[in-house]
Amino acid sequence: MASEHVQSILKVLPDKPGIYQHLDKDGRILYIGKAKSLKKRVSSYFNKNLSSGRTRVMVQKIADIRTVVTQNELEALLLENSLIKEHQPRYNVNLKDDKTYPWIVIKKERFPRIFYTRKKIEDGSEYFGPYPSVKVMKAVLELVRQIHPIRNCKLNLSASAIEEGKFQKCLEYHIGNCLAPCEALQSESAYMHEIDQARKIINGKLGEVKRMLGERMKEEAAAMRFEQAQKIKEKVELLEQYQARSTVVNSSISDVDVFSAVVDAQFGYVNYLKVVDGAILHTHTLEFRRKLEETESELLALAIPELRRRFGSGSKEILISHEVGIELDGVNIHRPQRGDKKRLVDLSIKNVRYFRLEKLKSIQITDPERHVERVMEQMRTDLRLDVQPRHIECFDNSNFQGSEAVSACVVFKNGKPAKSEYRHFNVRTVDGPDDFATMKEVVLRRYKRLEQEGLDLPQLVLIDGGKGQLSASLAALQELGLSKTIQVIGIAKRLEELFFPGDPIPLYLDKRSETLRILQQLRNEAHRFGITHHRNRRSRSMLSNSLERIDGVGPKTAERLLRTFKSIDRLKQAERQEVEELVGKAQAKKIMDHLLSNEES
Q: 263 FRET partner, CA 20 to 30 A, in 24, 187, 188, 551?
């Protein structure tokens, strides 16, 4: 319930775009957000049931609300971004600048140099990047230097110094990498023309540069300057080779930004692709810690303006993986459904998933506890549990043509098998192939015994089967008074449907999700363990019946022999003295004679 002060603020909020700040009783900023309508967005925190527990906790702490009205939503986006960076509120995702990535810089100086740096200095120079991959950045620089003769020395090429002849041509001139502007062998206008063309390459506008070079090549050839024409042709071939390596879709897709997002229980990831002439110019992925269970759409709305600002993008078209409720002036934001643009979004999604997978692998190796915590929290979220399922048990039934009914129980602790705690159950009270009654019996026996022995109960029980098996298991837990202590769900094999008690609609998890992978592993392990036990039991039963057909051998004698020798073959190979020690001389003679006579026949 909002305080009187907060209620009075809510009544006078404007129906205009802007940003809002939630503050606690000590004046600390809890959260900063943007809105198309401040009145609707801020009031929604207090007028609806909030699904996120963290959001409910934050709302309970709100003692004051501040707002700033903006002209449009774009201004609100930019203001929200800068304020989050300045104040780093507890409940906002973090937007951190990655200042260690390399940039390509065109230095602001006479006869500008082009080189790479990791420090972005506000000195009027042009910066391109950042480049997440040093390899890609160096490939671009190498291409520029192969095509355009640009100096790499640090000389101060002032007009007066050149006129006074203070400099001499260096090795770079003699090998053709520089045209010696230091000795006025190249004019400033001609040098700046090379810089302009290099800038286009860095910006990914390879088609424009190719066309210009092609025209120059024809001009040189027409003027019978074939050596110069050949050199230009080699530059065109270099461009084509580079373009062939980097083009991923139709080159008619001239200048677009591509964004995609994925989330798990604790983190969100947003990937950005800068595509020019069908080639990827930049790729970058941001990682966010989800503070208020932000969705993919919400993370995209935060990341799009931030990444466009960071990479200096002015693209008029943005492709997205999820719908976002933002508008940027003069920019077309849409979610493609087919064609080359859809393939670009799919590529971005592939990149962001790969980035997440690599992060998770790294965490699993370097910080196993954090990995387990993340997986358990993801399972808690996916399966709508109140607690993390650190201890899970799974049941599977087996029978052979309605007989020899058995059940298996496997145990997972922290997402891993605890094989010493696996158990088999020979069904006692059920006659015939009644899978529901079998499931009720074994679940009842399992948890009645755990309670009697004071052992830990699982947080989650997985039943291999559909609604019938689930209902039988729930009945057993209710009989024990454990239905509110232990969560039970069923998994059906055909479509991997997850059934919850009282919910007629099954849950379908993403086929790639870790939660589903662990549940499948549990189900498969229970099936394997149960089938192995069932086969062994059937085999023992058949062997026992075979021995009981021998005159004078009863069930107890057969059981004693099988417990010692395990199989008929081993019994045949045993020394008679060993058999006599178990059953006596008379019975041992009958058994061995019977086995030998069967072997001869």
A: 24
Q: Which pTM was predicted?
A: 0.53
H runs (alpha helix) in 247-338: 296-310
Residue 29 β-bridge partners: 23
Pairing of the two strands 64-69 and 29-35: unpaired
pLDDT at 258: 92
Task: Look up residue 282 and give its amino acid.
Answer: H
pLDDT at 600: 46
Spatial contact of 501 and 488, defined as CB atoms under 8 Å apart: yes
Which residue is listed with tokens 């640009």?
150
Measuring CA to CA, which residue among 447, 481, 445 is closest to residue 461?
Answer: 447
What is the arithmetic mean of pLDDT over 351-369?
78
CATH superfamily of 380-535: UvrC, RNAse H endonuclease domain (3.30.420.340)
The arithmetic mean of pLDDT across residues 428-451, rounded, is 84
Count CB neighbours of 70 within 10 A.
20
Locate the domains of the chain by residue range: 4-87, 103-246, 255-364, 380-535, 549-600
The CATH classification number of 549-600 equals: 1.10.150
How far from each other are the two terminal CA atoms of the chain, in whole angstroms? 90
Distance CA 423, CA 88 (A): 51
Say what angle helices 576-583 and 585-600 make with each other, to 10 degrees: 130
| Cα–Cα nearest to 527, from 401, 441, 422, 420 | 422
Strand partners for 394: 410, 462
d(CA 388, CA 84): 31
Please answer whether residues 508 and 498 qualify as being in contact, where contact means their C-beta atoms are separated by less than 8 angstroms: yes
**How far does CA 357 lie from the centroid of its chain?**
5
CB under 8 Å to 579, separation ≥6 — which residues?
Answer: 561, 571, 588, 591, 592
- Out of 3.90.830.10, 3.30.70.100, 3.40.1440.10, 3.40.30.10, the CATH code matching 4-87 is 3.40.1440.10
pLDDT of residue 389: 93
> How far is the C-alpha of 490 from the C-alpha of 499, rounded, in Å?
5
| Eight-state DSSP code of residue 248 | -
